[in-house]
Design a protein that fits this description.
By secondary structure, the chain is mostly beta strands. 8% of the residues lie in helices and 35% in strands. The longest helix is centred in the N-terminal third of the chain and has 17 residues. The radius of gyration is 20 Å and the shape is globular.
Length: 355
Amino acid sequence: MNRFLILICLLTAVSSCNLFEPGYREGAFPETPINLADINSADDDYNSTSKVAGDVIALVFSSKRGGRADFNFVHEALEVAYDLRKGKFTFSTQPYGGLSAIEEQNPLTWATSIANSTANELGPYIRSYDHDIISRNDPSGSSHRGEYLMLFASDRTGDLDIYLTHNYQMQPRSASGVLLSIGDKPFSAPVSVPFLNSSADDAYPTFDAAYRSVYFTSNRAGSFAIYKATLPAMGVTELQSRLPTITGAPIEKVASLSSSADDKCPFIDNDRLVFTSNRPGGCGGFDLYYSLWDGKQWGPPINFGPTINSASDEYRPILTRIPQEFSNQLMIFSSNRPGGKGGFDLYMVGIPKQQ
């Protein structure tokens, strides 16, 4: 059963949708943050990325669970649903989603395994070739289910640097040459992306909607700011091979997004960029902000306000695409606000869709 699909009419109980209350004709994510308690631990859990695989939201995030001294990536799963009869939102951290979802999610466990080290791994950013990269830019392309590009940051060489791993066109075979399941597609060994890195901390890469630029955060000029690197012309299926070899790409601080404070964790979805900042005027600590692209530049950052932000720290907001039966968009972020399971926890909240 596709649990992402919102059941409009119960086939065995009603013959018309008119029995539903007027307010329950589409689902809505809660506008007040919800702690993902069953996914969080007593240690720090934060800075996630997500992909929708079948019916399931696959989460990859940084965690110190188990008493670790460093952050490692963890892969968990989440499923959301909305009961139109009762006007009730529910989520499950033990989803099934069918064989296709299991096969498509399995490679993400390979990704965390290959990326983790004895250092800190932070800010994972995963793009699906099938659903994000190729389908958007080359509709005639063949299927690449279970194939992903992952960028992340690690301080394995001292400061935070940006790395890349992928399993694009990885075709695992048995010793006898038999093609194995898509869930067995292994990832390449992580490699540095030198043109994005400096002698300071560089992290949280995110592509623009057209995959022509990479935005990231760096403290190369003192405080953390948001930077934009313009990519040379290349096909989207060359990203995994070309990014580690680029030299001389123009990199600039994005003045409209940066301040004299620390501005971190950019994440782009279409024409909206979300990030975190401790600039003056917030609710306390680091707050979540968003900015809209007007076709030429990013507009003035707007604070999400006290319903989402708190007097504590809010970090790494990400926007997750879900079926259109929901009236708003799902945002996942991390916070060390009181009432969590310990340290930073992951939270979810509904925000207005882009107009």
